[in-house]
TrEMBL record:
The keyword Iron does not apply. Keywords: Membrane, Transmembrane, Transmembrane helix. The chain crosses the membrane at residues 12-31, 43-60, 66-90, 102-121, 127-144, 165-184, 190-210. This is DUF2306 domain-containing protein.
Amino acid sequence: MTESIYHINNLVHTIIGSIALLGALGALMSVKGSARHKTAGRVFVWFILFSAVTSFYPTFYKFSEIGPLALILAMATIYLVITAVIAVRYQTAEPLMIEKCLPVVPLLLLILPVIRVFLAIKTNNFDIFFGPLLLASLFIYLLVQDLAILVNRQRSREFWIQRHLTRIIFAFSIGVMAVVRIGVNFGLTFEMSVILPLLGALGLVVFFRWRIA
């Protein structure tokens, strides 16, 4: 019975996550601020959050197999979506209470990738190295940006738009990572299933920032 629940949960999780990714693509390809953009954005936010929450059961049920990565991806998704939504409220003079607590998340998310990087260096085994290194770099970037905002919230409108867009894109890449690594097995190695979505996200961030500038 427990195994059946696991498979049903995993199927629902994958379907909902895939719908969320389609919503993100719709939002990215539509005119910013348009009705289509807002609708697609809401689809992405609610569906990806639901997908992240439903990932906790399989994460702990088969922790030895998928747990560490799945837990990181779920926490990162929730964190990125929340901070992306908050960025729309840039007119708020003071940081919200939740914003003061959120920098703890990327700090916690750093632990496992950093351990994996140090283990690779210590054992001289680099089969799994660049994926965790990229994840650690992403979480450090997010942490530094969060702390900088707590120090000085007086930023331009363009900054908040870029922050919103950047975090939505990285949440999208995390979702892709979860689908190709855990939801649907495409046969990619751990390294490729992490590196390719993150490099794709970086390319999208550069492209859209260029369009905004």
